[in-house]
Design a protein that fits this description.
The structure is a single chain. The protein is an alpha/beta fold. The protein is 34% helix and 23% strand. It contains 15 helices and 21 strands. A hairpin with an 8-residue loop joins strand 20 (452-458) and strand 21 (467-474).
């Protein structure tokens, strides 16, 4: 069983019931809805099809709604694109009409950009493919020299090298999209271009105001977020982070990304939060049937670093082989998971626990790693115990049994965890409850007679935060 999870972005190539069923069968654990594209009605229809496909395949599939955030872009050109010549002058004009761009100037959607830049700043367009150096600012006009030229087409992104743009993480569009995502009962909301924990706390307040129950994934793609204390604050206030290597690489420089990735994964592990590693993991498989060796190494190294999940973007959203790329990523993850470092215990048993259920999770993993335990069964309302248990490497499968759809969807992201729908309130005693849980997993073929298993649960059935017991049982 693969322990690392696969997140797959949906799009035109992966929106039909037939294709989604094949993708889920191939190994998708979480689907990503990219709110940079499409309408609310399109998202609603897509979620309906995802749930139909997951039910047909008998699998729990989480839903991640990814908000666009303040993506700073050029506007449109009269002819769709222009060619920028090296050393030529080119103007970014916040007052220019949105479709009036030409080879001399183009509008910008972020009207505060002239206040955020100064002479000699370097602006990177289209993920760094084109480079402009700011010469001067005249009112709404940013007058630049083209340092690296090339084709520039409509709506391409703008980054300031070194970061420092003042745009907040949530736009008005994001706030409306957040309401849509909550109405669709998304399991996670991903927020883009997070600057600090304040952006996460603002999002959590908006979710609470709407009566939602979604977890928050903070996408780390700004240089400001990489300051160690700031990063730790973001991780603590969120329900997980995404190593968003695209825009982050533009801001900090591509050579800095591998070390930054390892640092983020280490920080998240220390703070008991899951991590998604994303962007260009198997980019060549958008059109090719095999990945490059470098892409294979990239995915494998993310697994060896301890990431919870690896993510596919255009590979499954618009690519030619959405099912094949999932099968390939599945194969690479399984091979990497054979390495001893992915199984080595990483628990710090000298640390004090703040909660009873956290102590039970630590005890469960200590027991599992020092006894011939075949599985850990966590009966959970919120998934907290399951999350803490999954933070310790062991290779022992953790089955998170819950009656809550959102809890099941959120557990689908956690490394080593396999969510199973199970209603604990149907049983009067813990003895009946444990026996039924074991029976469900036995019938599914996950465990067999004579296996030793660890079961964690609470004295009071169906109570949130009540996990306070650990039992070692022999199946059968």
């Amino acid at each position: 069983m693969r322990r690392t999870k696969i997140v797959s972005t949906l799009g035109p190539a992966s929106s039909s019931l037939e294709v989604l069923r094949k993708m889920i069968a191939a190994g998708v654990d979480i689907v990503r809805l990219n709110f940079s594209h499409g309408t609310p009605d399109e998202k609603k229809n897509l979620v309906t099809v995802v749930r139909q496909a997951a039910k047909a395949e008998g699998k729990i599939v989480g839903i991640l709604a990814d908000l666009q955030g303040p993506k700073i872009r050029v506007a449109k050109f009269k002819n769709g694109k222009v060619f920028l010549k090296e050393n030529a002058e080119f103007v970014l004009d916040a007052a220019l009409a949105k479709d009036a761009g030409d080879e001399n100037a183009v509008g910008i959607d972020y009207k505060e950009l002239p206040q955020d830049v100064k002479p000699e700043d370097v602006l990177l367009l289209d993920d760094g493919r084109l480079v402009l150096v700011v010469k001067k600012i005249e009112g709404t006009r940013i007058i630049c020299r083209v340092q690296v030229g090339g084709d520039l087409s409509n709506n391409k992104g703008i980054n300031r090298q070194g970061g420092g743009l003042s745009a907040g993480a949530l736009t008005d569009k994001d706030r409306e999209d957040l309401k849509t995502a909550l109405l669709l009962n998304a399991d996670y909301i991903a927020i883009s271009f997070v600057r600090s924990k304040d952006d996460v706390e603002e999002t959590r307040a908006l979710i609470a105001k709407e009566g939602g129950n979604a977890g928050i994934i903070a996408k780390i793609e700004r240089i400001e977020a990489m300051v160690p204390d700031v990063l730790k604050g973001i991780i603590k206030s969120s329900d997980g982070i995404m190593v968003a290597r695209g825009d982050l690489g533009v801001e900090i420089g591509d050579a800095e990304v591998p070390a930054a990735q390892k640092f983020m994964i280490e920080c998240a592990a220390a703070l008991n939060k899951p991590v998604i590693t994303a962007t260009q993991m198997m980019e060549t498989m958008i059109h090719n049937v095999t990945p490059t060796r470098a892409e294979v190494s990239d995915v494998a190294n993310a697994v060896l670093d301890g990431t919870d999940a690896v993510m596919l973007s255009a590979e499954t959203a618009t690519g030619d082989y959405p099912v094949l790329v999932i099968q390939t990523m599945d194969r690479v993850c399984l091979a990497a998971e054979k390495h001893p470092t992915t199984l080595a215990g990483n628990a710090h048993f000298d640390l004090r626990c703040e909660r009873t259920d956290e102590a039970i999770a630590m005890s469960a993993m200590y027991t599992a790693n020092h006894l011939n335990i075949k599985a850990i069964i966590s009966l959970t309302e919120t998934g907290k115990t399951t999350l803490w248990t999954s933070r310790i490497r062991s290779g022992i499968p953790i089955f998170g049994l819950s009656r809550s759809g959102n809890t099941l969807g959120r557990m689908a992201l956690y490394r080593d965890v396999y969510p199973v729908e199970f209603d604990v309130t149907k049983f009067k005693t813990n003895t009946e409850l444990k026996a039924a849980a074991i029976d469900v997993l036995k019938k599914s073929g996950y465990i067999k007679n004579d296996d030793l298993v660890v079961v964690t649960c609470g004295d009071h059935i169906g109570v949130t935060g009540g996990t306070n017991s650990l039992t070692i049982l022999q199946v059968g």
